[in-house]
Design brief:
Layout (H helix, E strand, L loop, with lengths): L3 E3 L9 H4 L3 H4 L9 E5 L1 H9 L4 E7 L8 H5 L6 E4 L1 H8 L7 E6 L6 H5 L4 E5 L5 H13 L4 E4 L9 H6 L9 E3 L8 H9 L3 E5 L6 E2 L3 H5 L3 E5 L8 H6 L2 E4 L11 H12 L3
Parallel strand pairs: 1-4, 3-4, 6-7, 6-11, 7-8, 9-11, 9-12, 10-12
Antiparallel strand pairs: 2-5, 3-5
Helix pairs in contact: 7-12
């Protein structure tokens, strides 16, 4: 493999993306053009590649060169493959690699909200969800449980952060998504944008006027947006007030709420039925 490069110098600048540049800086690596992100594990990397994202380099554990990652690497013969033993890679990156492989990949320009919503009937909106594990789990549920797209407010964690893409098992590359533009105030202008696209809005929140998630009126809506709020605080009051429906998940044993990722799976399953 002519593109295989043995790691002998931790300070080599080509390893900066794996060892020294924080993910938030990778996001702006080519500013004003889209930056980079790190994908982890052959499955996630393959799904990113299938979606059109281009690899810049690979970081691979020795033993995985001839195992799960072999077929993937053969598809990119001109891309550098930096390699070393597992212990060396852990020391370099600061964490244990899943399936022994990382890949630096180029980002793409995000589509507009209008483009995302054009042919959609069921959309998830995440409001200020900042935990990458939750983001990844929600994307996996959205892709699996009949959502057509995901929209994020500017306060949300980046779905292309390494942990988010790994937890999603690459589902972030299998469902359309984008952010509301920072110049579009949320929730006021964002809600108006959704209304102009003929969507009815559902706030997942516990209020006195909340209706059950299995209410027939919800199933009857042709175009529905399901809005989930931040860990702990939930949706902001203005978002709840601006929605057409406020919806709750019936629970037992005096439990009053679910983790946002768990709640999303229930909501998508019930409201994604068509």
């Amino acid at each position: 493999m002519s593109n295989r490069i043995e790691i002998t110098d931790f300070t080599a600048p080509e390893l900066d993306v794996y060892a020294r540049i924080p993910e938030v800086q990778l996001l702006r690596f080519y500013e004003p053009k889209p930056g980079l992100f790190i994908a982890e594990s052959p499955k996630v990397i393959q799904r990113a590649a299938n979606a059109g994202y281009q690899p810049v380099s690979f970081l691979v554990q020795h033993k995985d060169l001839e195992k799960e990652g072999k077929e993937l690497l053969q598809k990119f013969p001109g891309i550098p493959v930096y390699t070393a033993d597992y212990e060396v890679l852990v020391k370099l990156t600061g964490f244990a690699l899943t399936r022994g492989m990382l890949c630096a990949m180029t980002r793409r320009d995000l589509p507009s909200v209008e483009d995302i919503c054009k042919n959609a009937r069921r959309i998830a909106i995440l409001e200020n969800v900042v935990n990458p594990t939750n983001i990844g789990a929600i994307f996996r549920s959205a892709a699996a449980l009949h959502m057509d797209a995901v929209l994020l407010t500017p306060g949300c964690c980046d779905p292309l952060y390494r942990r988010a893409t790994r937890v999603s098992m690459g589902s972030v590359f299998q469902i359309p998504w984008t952010y509301f533009h920072k110049k579009v105030s949320w929730p006021e202008a964002g809600m108006e944008q959704l209304r102009s696209l003929e969507f009815k809005t559902v706030a997942m929140a516990l209020r006195n006027d909340s209706i059950s998630i299995d209410a027939p009126a919800l199933q009857a809506e042709e175009k529905l947006v399901i809005i989930l709020g931040a860990e702990g605080d939930g949706l902001v009051d203005a978002t709840i007030t601006g929605c057409d429906y406020t919806v709750k998940i019936p629970m037992s044993h005096e439990v009053d709420s679910l983790n946002v990722a768990a709640a999303s799976a229930v909501a998508f399953w019930e409201l994604g039925k068509r």
